[in-house]
Specification:
Elements: H1 4-12, H2 20-27, E1 29-34, E2 46-53, E3 56-63, H3 69-74, H4 82-97, E4 102-108, H5 115-119, H6 122-134, E5 140-149, H7 150-154, E6 161-165, E7 169-171, H8 175-183, H9 189-196, H10 200-205, E8 211-213, H11 231-251, H12 256-268
Parallel strand pairs: 3-4, 4-5, 5-6, 5-7, 6-8
Antiparallel strand pairs: 1-2, 2-3
Helix pairs in contact: 1-9, 4-6, 8-9
Length: 274
């Protein structure tokens, strides 16, 4: 039996759901992509660069899935390798140097678990990003767009404001992976989804995220081949854009030391039970 939580998981994975680059095109202008980590290679699963949002200069970072099988293979199904996380951190440091706020868009089933990624230090790259993001002295706004999978998501998720789409999910493990570990039966993924408390409503209740962006209608890139982004896409994207801009303006009133201190306190409180 499919649970309400697992229905959200399926919605978050829908192949017509907007991806990071759809939002880059819709909400940002003057986007200039930055490639490579200057250590090993470029990682197409992680798209980074600089852009403007409502006239504000920002750095943008997003995990990108693919629309067809060729793009999915090219993007590695939005599962970044170490060079992807190092590229993201490289852009964050550039943003800090030039005083630009950072916007990150999370949409990944998790970091790539392949042997080559492990050989190049996948766990170290993720852990290093967590530490470094905690001390960056410019505003960081995080958007959980679709799937937020484990450390692969969290490595670009240490933000001053964490916004989450209503039908997105954010969890330490996929429901299928959890079910396979607990019950040796991946078909019990709906039960695992319910127990993981991975929906936006759950996470807002636990203060893991700060704000839920409503999706009053089905949010897809549309069926019209001539205009792939219809009214529903534009309506929800406009709402998300306004909340990102408002968060940046609010956070930009604070100095770097205050941002770092409040970010540290925000994440230290997570998991506390009274």
């Amino acid at each position: 039996m499919t649970t309400a939580a697992f229905e959200r998981v399926q919605t978050a994975r829908h192949p017509d759901r907007p991806y990071a680059m759809d939002l880059f095109e819709e909400m940002f202008t003057d986007f200039v992509e930055v490639h490579g980590d200057r250590r090993f290679a470029d990682d197409p699963a992680m798209v980074t660069g600089f852009a403007k949002i409502d006239g504000i200069d920002v750095a943008v970072i997003g995990q990108q899935k693919g629309r067809d099988i060729n793009e999915r293979r090219h993007r590695n199904f939005a599962m970044p390798k170490p060079e992807g996380y190092r590229k993201a951190l490289r852009v964050m440091r550039m943003a800090e140097k030039f005083g630009r706020p950072i916007v990150t868009i999370i949409d990944t089933p998790g970091a790539y678990p392949g042997i080559d990624a492990e050989e190049r230090g996948q766990a170290e790259a993720i852990a290093f990003n967590l530490r470094e993001m905690a001390s960056i002295k410019v505003p960081i706004v995080v958007v959980v767009l679709g799937e937020g999978g484990s450390g692969g998501a969290l490595a670009i998720g240490i933000g001053d404001r964490v916004l989450m789409m209503e039908n997105a999910v954010y969890s330490v493990i996929t429901p299928e992976g959890c079910a396979a570990i607990l019950w040796k039966d991946a078909s019990r993924a709906p039960d695992a989804a319910e127990g993981l408390k991975l929906t936006a409503d759950n996470l807002k209740q636990f203060n893991i995220i700060d704000e839920i962006i409503p999706e009053p209608v089905s949010w897809t890139i549309g069926d019209d081949k001539n205009d792939k982004r219809g009214d529903a896409f534009n309506q929800i994207a406009a709402s998300l854009k306004s909340r990102i801009t408002a968060s940046i303006k609010e956070l930009s009133r604070k100095d770097g030391k205050s941002l770092v201190r409040e970010r540290y306190e925000k994440f230290r409180k997570m998991g506390e039970w009274v």
